[in-house]
Amino acid sequence: MAGKSKKSKKAKKAKKADKARKADQVAGYAADPNETSVEGTVDGSKRKMKRSGYESAMEVLQGELVVMQEWVKATGAKVCVVFEGLDSAGKGGTIRRITERTSPRVFKHIALPAPTDREKSQMYIQRYIAHFPAAGEVAIFDRSWYNRAGVEPVLGFCTPEETERFLEIAPQVERAMVDSGIILIKYWLNVSVEEQARRLESRIDDPRKIWKLSPTDLRSYGLRYEYCRARDKMLEATDTPWGPWFVAHNDDKKRGRLNIISHLLDHIPYETVPRAKIEFPDPPDPDGYTDPDLRVHLVPEKF
Predict the structure, then answer these.
(1) Is 184 helix (H, G, I), strand (E, B) or coil?
(2) What is the mean pLDDT of the segment spanning 135-142?
(3) CATH number of the domain that 110 lies in?
(4) Which of 42, 46, 95, 212 has a CB 3.0–4.6 Å from the CB of 251, allowing a cystine?
(5) Cβ neighbours around 300 below 10 Å, total
(6) Which residues make beta-bridge pairs with 109?
(7) Mean pLDDT (whole number) for 40-69
């Protein structure tokens, strides 16, 4: 019993130290109370953040995501993160910053295309279940089964009865996910009508963004308030103790990304996984090897 008590005390001490380390990290990127706040719309306040402060904060958070990743691998944890929101609300950009410094073998970005005829004939949620996380994985859905509560009814791709049925069964499916050991976190990203218009317009002439702009996106902008009504109904029906929705105001992308990643880290019970000290090896011995005189096709050095 004494051995167990010692172990328990040691684990508690390690957990406390880990918590203190995270608190110190948070203090490093907390918002400056002297920053000027600018009131936004009903979608939330907007406070612009400088690039230098943003990148410094992001570096800290991305380091924590790697710590979390190692814990997920070591413990066999299963994490499922759902991103929903209006078009151009910043879902893709937030996910990119989450996965930028992590392993694609652990953090999986799931962005499914329109369903095939075969998938349309399946049970609705079937094609999403195939991408649920296994042990040691974090599955991040860039839009999800909640299409049935937003995009599909607003654009007329399903019947009102199908949406009603979905809203009834979604909490039950998510309860089964959580009961199976999956950590489920759901985000809805809000953006004001003015900022949404600015982002969509910026895609028209920017060759890096034109792929993001489709006739459906432009149509969706005109249906903004239909989406809002569908969202309100969805949040009311599917916000549960085991699968709550977290709403993020994302007019300021920099601040929004930091807030979301920080919140995600706070809701995963990860700890630092000890690892062996790494020592860099001596330079390799060529053992008589020299580069052969081969006729190869070189990439032109234009830069």
Answers:
(1) strand
(2) 98
(3) 3.40.50.300
(4) 46
(5) 5
(6) 140
(7) 80
